[in-house]
Design goal:
Layout (H helix, E strand, L loop, with lengths): L2 E3 L6 E3 L1 E4 L9 H13 L4 E3 L4 H4 L1 H9 L7 E6 L7 H15 L4 E9 L2 H8 L4 H10 L3 E8 L3 H8 L6 E5 L5 H13 L3 E5 L6 H4 L14 H10 L6 E4 L4 H13 L5 H13 L20 H14 L3 H14 L17 H5 L6 H12 L3
Parallel strand pairs: 3-4, 3-10, 4-5, 5-6, 6-7, 7-8, 8-9, 9-10
Antiparallel strand pairs: 1-2
Bound molecules: iron/sulfur cluster (2 copies).
One iron/sulfur cluster (SF4) binds next to helix 15 and helix 16.
């Protein structure tokens, strides 16, 4: 296992982290706790959870494992500014998490799920969540206050630039890096820790290994390539993996040991492949972004990629739209797909020659069902 310093915290964390959002609950608490201990024995020392994960049982599973861990470890959990909007509620949430995990302190506590600037402002308001977390820090209950964000890179830079958070957790992977990497670079520039979640694009890569064969080097699977993209990247501190089996742990550890970052040429090859071999796919180049109606075309076309790549039906796409309205870049949209006036400017600019207006019509139809 490779260890790196998390930002400027002085803590040396494993480049592979255990994300506690995908435990197999059918196996029971002890079997899942055993998997956590197994990961720790393999050298993983960063364990990330949150209240609510796995039907609200994730913190308790970690708590069971933490009673008997084979090595030293770091604990990370979270609280949402929308749920814990006063300092007192924020402190109570921290105490609840400590109690459920049976630990004396949380090393990395996240202001969770910033999707727009209003969420950040809510956390920072006088008497709000951040104030409660500072109090916990003074009491020795939290070591480092960090955040998780689903915002564009420019907003991540704006927030981290204020020096209130020591790191950020964000969703980046080998398929969305053309859209998400600016947030990673902004955090790097400010000396913050960067934790990546969702390395396998929500399971899409292992599920469609044949379609994603182009991601891999000789002798590796597309899943291993997707893990290597993040685990070996010098810009990423920890890559969270939602392990459910020992084999998953072994794969991630093997990739960490290999630790060969993808080169700029590899990434360019993948970007071109995403465009050329998947002709119908939006590559996120952004050339279409000046829509007179302010429709966030690249963000919408990224969602439409799911339909193109995985042949999703209408029902699945309505689900995906719902998800992206709440969590993805579409949270920030100034206009909906239905506001397209078919001026044709975007299609003229599109480097992939995509039928954007026709796709927006499909999207408008799905949005009408939300
Ligand atoms: S065709 Fe529609 S989406 Fe494209 S630029 Fe014009 S209004 Fe915007
Ligand atoms: S120009 Fe085409 S490929 Fe580029 S972001 Fe816009 S829709 Fe996607």
């Amino acid at each position: 296992m490779r260890y790196v310093e998390y930002g400027r915290t002085g803590k040396r964390v494993s480049v592979v982290g255990f994300g506690g959002m995908r435990f197999d609950l059918a196996k029971g608490q002890e079997a899942n706790a055993d998997l956590v201990r197994y990961a720790c024995a393999q050298g993983i020392n960063y364990f990330d959870t949150a209240p609510g994960y796995c039907n609200d049982s994730s913190e308790a599973i970690f708590g069971e494992a933490f009673k008997n861990m084979p090595n030293d470890f770091f604990v990370s959990t979270k609280g949402m500014p929308t749920s814990f909007d006063t300092a007192e509620k924020a402190r109570e949430a921290v105490l609840r998490s400590l109690d459920r995990m049976g630990v004396p302190k949380i090393h990395f506590y996240h202001v969770w799920c910033l999707r727009k600037m209003e969420h950040y402002e809510l956390a920072m308001q006088s008497g709000g969540q951040y104030e409660g977390l500072l109090r916990c820090q003074q009491e020795g209950l939290i070591d480092h206050i960090v955040c998780s964000s689903h915002q564009p890179g420019s907003e991540i830079a704006q927030i981290l630039g204020k020096n209130e958070f020591e790191g950020v957790l964000l969703g980046a992977n080998i398929l969305n890096f053309p859209y998400r990497w600016d947030g990673v670079l902004a955090a790097n520039k400010l000396g913050c820790g960067v934790v990546a979640m969702n390395p396998l694009a929500g399971g899409a890569i292992p599920k469609h290994e044949k379609e994603f064969a182009f991601l891999a080097d000789e002798g590796e699977t597309p899943t291993e390539a997707a893990l290597r993209f993040l685990i070996a990247a010098p810009q990423i501190t920890v890559t969270l993996n939602g392990f459910t089996t020992r084999e998953h742990v072994d794969t991630a550890c093997r990739v960490a040991d290999r630790a060969e970052p993808m080169t700029d040429a590899d990434l360019e090859r993948i970007r071109v492949h995403l465009g050329r071999n998947m002709n119908e796919v939006c590559t996120g180049c952004g050339y279409c972004k000046d829509c007179p109606q302010n429709i966030p075309i690249p963000a919408y076309m990224q969602v439409y990629n799911d339909k193109v790549m995985f042949k999703q039906d209408d029902q699945a796409m309505i689900g995906a739209m719902k998800h992206h309205h709440s969590w993805g870049n579409l949270v920030m949209r100034q206009a909906d797909a239905k506001e397209c006036v078919e001026c044709g400017l975007c299609e003229e600019a599109c480097t992939q020659h995509l039928p954007i207006t026709a796709r927006l019509k499909d999207i408008a139809r799905w949005e009408a069902k939300l």
